[in-house]
């Protein structure tokens, strides 16, 4: 981890955390990074996670002109994830098939603004632009929202605070109360 930090400590850091699998739409992030770097030339992408597509994604990234601006960490223990969330500037999440959106909640609870495609679990968690930006499956729109957050420190600060607050909706206490409410309505 210290080696990664030394390499990228004064960059604009985009972070993906999760399984590295085809359904996560991670090729999208490679293309997005290329578009973002045209405006924010010190942007880097950190991909934290392992999965069946890691080797393939690394091979694709190696062919891109900005391959030195992508870091694959592989699997990371849960206790190390907070480090990455706190290191990053924007959490980028292109998954089209997310069932629960838990990493989105983790990122937001660490004050990391999110740019995500508004599908399935992510749609349920973010419910709009809460804690970041929920966008269509459109590379231009996604990239522009990332650029907006990187270039506008006030917007990033606002979305960071909003992310922390919004993530409280998904705390154990709040979700337990919601579950009890459902049980009580069924009992009645």
Attribute tags:
alpha/beta, 188 residues
Short overview:
The protein is α/β, with parallel strands linked by helices. Helices cover 51% and strands 15% of the residues.
Protein architecture, described:
The protein has about 190 residues and is α/β, with parallel strands linked by helices. It has nine helices and six strands. The chain has helices at about 1-10, 25-35, 55-60, 80-85, 100-110, 120-125, 140-150, 155-165, 170-185; strands spanning about 10-15, 45-50, 70-75, 90-95, 115, 130-135. It has a six-stranded parallel β-sheet, sandwiched between helices.
SSE blueprint and pairings:
Layout: H1 2-8, E1 12-17, H2 27-37, E2 43-48, H3 54-62, E3 70-74, H4 78-87, E4 90-93, H5 102-109, E5 114-117, H6 120-126, E6 132-135, H7 139-151, H8 153-167, H9 172-187
Parallel strand pairs: 1-2, 1-4, 2-3, 4-5, 5-6
Helix pairs in contact: 2-7, 5-8, 7-8
Please, what is the average pLDDT? Answer: 86
In this structure, how is the largest beta sheet organized? 6 strands, parallel
* Helix residue percentage: 40-55%
Strand percentage lies at 15-25%
What is the rounded Rg?
17 Å
Strand-pairing-aware structural class: alpha/beta
The tally of strands reads 6
């Amino acid at each position: 981890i210290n080696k990664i930090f030394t390499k990228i400590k004064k960059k604009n850091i985009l972070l993906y955390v999760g399984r590295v699998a085809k359904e996560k739409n991670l090729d999208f992030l490679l293309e997005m990074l290329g578009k973002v770097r045209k405006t924010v030339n010190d942007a880097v992408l950190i991909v934290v996670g392992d999965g069946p597509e890691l080797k393939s994604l690394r091979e694709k990234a190696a062919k891109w002109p900005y391959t030195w601006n992508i870091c694959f960490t592989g699997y990371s223990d849960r206790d190390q994830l907070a480090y990455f969330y706190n290191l990053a500037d924007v959490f980028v999440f292109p998954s089209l098939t997310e069932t629960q959106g838990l990493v989105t909640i983790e990122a937001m609870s660490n004050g990391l603004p999110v740019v995500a495609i508004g599908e399935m679990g992510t749609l349920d968690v973010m419910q709009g632009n809460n804690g970041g930006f929920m966008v269509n499956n459109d590379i231009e729109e996604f990239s522009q929202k990332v650029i907006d957050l990187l270039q506008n420190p006030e917007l990033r600060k606002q979305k960071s605070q909003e992310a922390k607050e919004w993530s409280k909706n998904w705390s154990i206490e709040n979700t337990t109360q919601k579950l009890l409410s459902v049980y009580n309505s069924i009992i009645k």
